[in-house]
């Protein structure tokens, strides 16, 4: 294992760009298609902590379901519950490297890790 992981949605152009940038840099990350294999609560909490953005930094607020579930003022626990029940609410791509963890949106953010 390379020590690199990407939480990836192959239908997302930003996620595809980040994965391509990693591979172009000679890195073959562990690819977690989080819609097929969602992370557990502890993993989400670790990612939020390691990114330094808190749980809200993991949430895809642009997703229609975010508004439907009225998550705008929700607590961290409620946000985690929502992401566990609806992985589409997890923002992407999240890249874990040996140095740091980053939300790589926009895709150019991955350069901070390379």
Cα distance, first to last residue? 17 Å
Mean pLDDT, nearest integer? Answer: 95
Radius of gyration, whole Å? 14 Å
Helix content: 25-40%
Number of domains: 1
What is the fold-level CATH name, i.e. the topology? Glutaredoxin
Q: Write down the CATH class.
A: Alpha Beta
The main sheet comes to:
4 strands, mixed
Apparent shape: globular
| Proportion of residues in β-strands | 5-15%
Classified in CATH, the superfamily is Glutaredoxin
Query: What series of H and E elements makes up the topology?
Result: EHEHHHEE
Secondary structure class reads alpha+beta
Low-confidence parts lasting 5 or more residues at pLDDT below 50?
A: none
Q: How many β-strand runs? A: 4
Largest sheet, order of strands side by side?
A: 2-1-3-4
CATH architecture: 3-Layer(aba) Sandwich
Number of helices: 4
Keywords: Arsenical resistance, Oxidoreductase
GO biological process, one term: response to arsenic-containing substance
Family: Belongs to the ArsC family.
Catalytic activity: [glutaredoxin]-dithiol + arsenate + glutathione + H(+) = glutathionyl-S-S-[glutaredoxin] + arsenite + H2O
Describe the overall structure.
- The chain is built from 4 helices and 4 strands, in the order E-H-E-H-H-H-E-E.
- The protein has helices at residues 13-24, 41-51, 64-68, 76-85, and strands at 5-8, 30-33, 94-96, 101-103.
- Helix 1 links the parallel strand 1 (5-8) and strand 2.
């Amino acid at each position: 294992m390379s020590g690199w992981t990407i939480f990836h949605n192959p239908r997302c152009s930003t996620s595809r760009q980040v994965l391509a940038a990693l591979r172009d840099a000679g890195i073959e990350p562990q690819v977690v298609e989080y819609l097929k294999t969602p992370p557990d609560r502890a993993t989400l909490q670790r990612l939020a902590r390691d990114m330094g953005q808190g749980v809200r930094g993991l949430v895809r607020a642009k997703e229609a379901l975010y508004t439907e579930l009225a998550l705008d003022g929700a607590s961290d626990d409620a946000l985690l519950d929502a992401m566990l029940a609806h992985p589409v609410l997890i923002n992407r791509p999240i890249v874990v490297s040996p140095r740091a963890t980053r939300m790589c949106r926009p895709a150019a953010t991955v350069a901070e890790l390379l």
